[in-house]
Design brief:
It catalyses: a very-long-chain acyl-CoA + malonyl-CoA + H(+) = a very-long-chain 3-oxoacyl-CoA + CO2 + CoA. Helix content is 44%, strand content 16%. By secondary structure, the chain is of the alpha/beta class. Helix 12 packs antiparallel against helix 13.
Length: 470
Amino acid sequence: MEAMVYLFLLPVFYLFFLLWKFIDGKRDQECYILDYQCYKPTDDRKLSTEFCGDMIRRNKSLGLQEYKFLLKAIVNSGIGEETYGPRNVFSGNETHPSVLDGISEMDEFFNDSIEKLLDRVGVSPSEIDALVVNVSMITTAPSLAGRIINRYKMRENIKAFNLTGMGCSASLISINIVQNLFKSYKNMYALVVTSESLSPNWYTGNDRSMILSNCLFRSGGCAVLLTNKRALRHRAMLKLRCLVRTHHGAKDESFGCCIQKEDDQGRLGFFLNKSLPKAATRAFIDNLRVISPKILPVRELLRYMVASLVRKMYQNSKGGGKVVINFKTGVDHFCIHTGGKAVIDGIGKSLELTEYDLEPARMTLHRFGNTSASSLWYVLAYMDEKKRLKKGDRVLMISFGAGFKCNSCMWEVARDLDGGNVWKDCIDSYPPESLSNPFMEKYGWINQADENTFEEKMKEIDEAKALKLR
């Protein structure tokens, strides 16, 4: 009789063991952010209105019409005077940048942010199990990931990834790589390093579609430390709930809407096509279709389906308005890529967001500019420093990038966050009373100028500048 009982219990215990192993394995696959460090360049790299004017005047290929275009672009960009540029533009070497310029720009960021992050968390570089580096516009040999491994003497068996050409949405691609690693390996530390190298890509020609990038892109970067260690979940800042990637590279129009290229005179830059807004909208809509069921409550999805069905049935009747899904039913904070004022406005309109929702992205664009793939983390840091992020809050990150790509993810705040990041020295002055750009006050006369008055005025400015330097 006892033998029969054992024979019965054995498969039952085995099933419980398999169930426990499955649940235990799933728990070890969680993706947590322990901490992150946004990069703040030194003050001698700030692009003030006066310096930008001097730098533009160095470009002898620009004429009156290009000046008018630049003035309009800069004034409407949403960018202030506190943003940072690469060192080679301050030394007047943007026309003939060297490989060393780009590498030095990255090293300065690596040495500052990675060290601060690891020191604060108390993790040694030798404890890092995986390293993912994404910098789109520069490729070196050895890779930038290799430079970090060499600089910090990381382990020989570290899993290293070096991403280039992924554009402004690259940091979420890096997070996705870490997320997939965590599904196969337990008890890992992963370091994501995200930035952009502007030194070799500062455009010095007169093609309007390429000049525009100089008005938007600024120096920055972020280092993020992630883990799937269950024992550290109480120290974690954020927990990844889901991540969705959309890629429209198969569409020629989307693929070519933003691309690194040379102009007719062979000057390297980043080309932004007029089809960019259309491509971004298509990718954004397709991405939302996939992520919405993952982050929104069932009641909101049902409401949207019923409202859409009713509208379709009575679409010819008067007063039929557009049916919009309410993302605020499943999202507490919106972390939007600072691709430009038009990007922020477009997402705000599409999702029916308030100025409070858009404030972190607008202020980040004003203070730091478009720092490419790292911009999302500056937006998150703004929310953190403003004490907006409380335990249990859900944060939706939305990013766009060349290709054309739209990537998004949902984070859950694991504990109340208390700030103390890159914004701490200036957060009290944000939001400012006005975001008006000083370029209009200083250079507004260009809009009324003709060729003769333009040349005379520029000569006066140069003479006044020379007199000031004496």
